[in-house]
Amino acid sequence: MKKKWWHLLLILGCLTFLAGCWDKRELTDLAIVNAVGVDKLENGKFRNTFQIINPGNVAGNQQGGAQTSGIPITVYTVSGRNMLDAARLGSKNVSRQIYYAHANLVVIGEDLAREGLMQLFDVMERDPQFRTTSSIVIAENSTAEDLLKMLTPIDKLPANKITKTLKFTEKALGENMDVSVDDVIRDMVSPGKEPIISGFKIVGNSEEGKGQANLQTTEAAARLQAGGMAIFKEGKLTRWLHGKNARGVLWVQNKVQQTPVNIYWKNNKKPLAFFVIRGKSIIKAKLEKNKPVIKVHIEAEGDIREADIQIDLTNPNIIFQLEKLAEKEIKKEIMATIKMIQKEKTDVFGFGDVIHRTSPKVWKQLKNDWNDVGFPELKVDVDVDAFIRRTGLRNNPYITEVNN
After folding, report:
1. In a domain, 285, yes or no
2. Tens digits of residue pLDDT in 196-237
3. Are residues 33 and 98 in the same domain?
4. pTM of the model
5. Are 240 and 229 within 8 A, CB to CB?
6. What is the secondary structure of 10-30 as a DSSP string?
7. Domain extent for 309
8. Residue 349's domain is classified under what CATH number?
């Protein structure tokens, strides 16, 4: 019996020597990809663009150390018959192993997006290195290659510039939103829901924006800027939404966190600024006369941030009237967007998905021609509740005192 225990202990002791870094990768052997771009060529091949970090030229700038003179990224472009083919052929140009685990951005050229996205994401889902949580954007009026070759001030890594801009503009403006690869895949395969993806565009001289001189002036010759929202139908880009139309979609999708809404008081030409600090939307589906009806309820809570007119903001009745005007403005914006997208015949709001979850039997009758028949004819009721919580650090505007 003792021999058995000794044998067992000996085996367990030997196991401790078997552990090791069997899959180790030395940092000096890795080419760390920060962003991937995909375009389609006229011959049908894919053109992959890899934005690779130059570690020695980034570390000092990123950590607040001494400024370095080198360019923080290197961009390689490779063509192949499919996504994997192009990705593997990239190894011919790089002296290190191409490493995707830190890629946090995927850029799709507009021409390819209009042709269709269905063929792109299979390799991204299967590859154990690639993260489907990476953000995805469409290169508006441009190619993914041109977008990824731009050099940006402040954020030395252009991919970080794009992802951070998406994050902060979604929170502060509500006209763009950060969408991941996983979100797009889920929308494409979900019944009654089509993808919607933010766009990014180049403003200025794109050729000059690719050189280091773009980082050495107070006003860059070219810069990257958040664009519109791309709406899709059956995986193909059909239209761009900008401004209030883009925000109308985000209102419905419960993505508006903060945003300014202009309110016009009586006959004044200058608007008051109602700044939403918390937004919330709830979508429900009901049956009326055996037909589905969508009910959208919006709650918008905020402050008066600008009032350059004569008005008594200490009067509760006036505050109540301003709330009603804000509700009317938000509802008008949302309804205009819904009607526009119904004409496009693509359900980017996910109304079909709500009907599917609420009334599966009804959805079974509608799903085959939902985008072309059911969605364009769908009745949508929008109800908005606006709440003005504060008027800022001042009650009445100083212009009232000056004129009195």
Report:
1. yes
2. 999 999 998 888 888 877 777 788 888 899 999 999 999 999
3. yes
4. 0.86
5. yes
6. HHHHHHTTT---TT---GGGE
7. 242-404
8. 3.30.300.210
